Every structure is written in C-alpha cells, then in structure tokens.
Amino acid sequence: MREPIFVKQNSKKWERFESSTTSDADELADSFIQITDDLAYAKTFYPKSKTTTYLNGLASRFHQSIYKNKSEKGNRFITFWRFELPLLFYSYRKQLLYSFTFSLVFALIGWVSAKYDENFIRLIMGDEYVDMTNANIAKGDPFGVYKQSGEFSMFFMIAVNNIYVSLSTFVSGMIFSIGTVYQLFRNCLMLGAFEYYFFSKGLGMQSVLVIWIHGTLEISAIIIAGAAGLVLGNSFLFPKTYTRLFSLKRGAMDGMKIAVGLVPIFITAAFFEGFVTRHTEMPAWLSVSILASSLTFIIWYVVLYPRALNKKTLYGTSN
C-alpha cells in the first residue's frame, strides 16, 4: 500500500505508544510486538523514508524498556508464549476455524465409511492392528496396546512422531494449502474410523475415557498445525495488498511460529500417552478431570485468551 495510507491507518496507534509512560511488562510487550511488525513492513516498502526512521526509534525505546537488566532471552521466551503466539491465534482465527471444520468433516467421513464398509477399518488401520486389538478385547483388555512399551520409550517415540506430524502438516501448506488439507484428511479419516471401531464393539464411552486422555491435546494440536499450514499456503494464494513474496515470507514466519509453539502441547500429550493412558482402570472421575482440563486449556489459550489480549492491545485496557 502507499506510504500515506500506511501512516494514516497506524498513526493514532503510534501516537498512543509514543505518549505511553507505562512500566507494565505486559503492555510494553504488546506494544513492542506491534511496532516491530510495522517496522518490518516499513523497512520492506519504504526503506529510506522518515516513517521507517521514526518506527526504528520507537521500537528501540520499547526494546530498551523490555530487555533492561540483561534479561533479553528470558523475556523473549515468556513474551512468545504469553503474547506473541496468542495474538497469532487471534490474527489467524479464520484459518483455525477452517482447519477445525475440515478435521470434523474428515472424521465424520471416516466414521460413516467404517460403518458402511466392513473392510474400511482394516484398510485404514491395518490388519495387524485390528487383529491385535480384537485379541485384546477377547482378553478383556481392549486398550492393552498402550501397555506394550515402557513408559519413557513410549513417551519419547510418541513425542517425536507428534512433532514430526505437526511440522509435516505445516510444511505441506507450501503445496498451495492442498498439502495441509490432505494431511488433515489422512489423520482425521483414521480418527473417525478408529472411534467407530470401538463404538461398534460397545466400547465407545470407555474409549473416550481412555484414549482422549492424551487425544484431546494431540488432536487439538494437529488441528492447530493445520491452521499453520493454511497460513503458509494462503499467504501465497491470497497476498491481499502485499507483494506475493512479502506475503509468503510473512506467512511462513507466522506459520512456523504457530507450529513451533505447539511443541509443549505435543510433549504434554506424549507424556499422558506414555505414562497415564496405560492405566486403563483409573477412576472415571480422574479421566474426566484430565479430559476437561485439557479441553478447557485449549479453548482458553487458543480462543478466549487471544480475544481478550487483542481487545486489551487495541483499547489499552483489561476490560
């Protein structure tokens, strides 16, 4: 866009930041993130303008305020998960909604396909897994697969696999977003068939109480990784007022931040799967508590908190 339009759209915000005397770390971090985004844009399109010089000075001021006392690394780490990542969730809430919708539809397709085609489950899950699970059901231990490996080895294997799935789902967005949609299709089709299999055996509620101890965080993170892939792919397909190259760079950076930000969630899910899910006889109230806590966290951190944080950033209040 033209420089006068860029200045007009953001001048009031910059004036508010410039006149701010706050020492609150939260507000300083919010302002710094927005200013550096604007500065990056100005450096790209108006590298020698007074606007760029002004923003550079303003960013330096906030940088000094936030990173004083030589605590730059610690502050940056906290800022990312407390402010930057949630604000990215809010900025790309449409992609999150699209990814959730795709995943839900694909899971339903997997469920219906398994219901009306008795060979579909074996096609998707493999004969070996189905035969093993049938044998476990006959022995009265339908979820015995989660007890076959040691806790730590299972935790490590699942964590690595989950992180790989997340990054591959994100990177696949380079294929014009179609690659990411395909990755969601594969994972959620299997999820739908998997759940139908246990419901068809009369183990539906038990499967929810056992499998979704780790599945709540794991599947949620895959959906969010799908959103990251859509951010990457759509940045090239729909650059809006930016050049296609600038839009792609921005989408790649934001998408990577979202994908990397999922690592703690995947590690937590792997911990549950390796150390907790194997206790299939735990009380129902404990399973429900873990499920509810995981789901509450995802809804709060990905939807509610980003909305509140964005409102605070726009209006400078906590209301």
UniProtKB/TrEMBL annotation:
Transmembrane domains' residue ranges: 96-114, 163-184, 196-213, 219-238, 258-276, 282-304
Keywords from the named record: Membrane, Transmembrane, Transmembrane helix
Name of protein: Stage II sporulation protein M
Organism (species): Mucilaginibacter terrenus
InterPro entries: SpoIIM-like
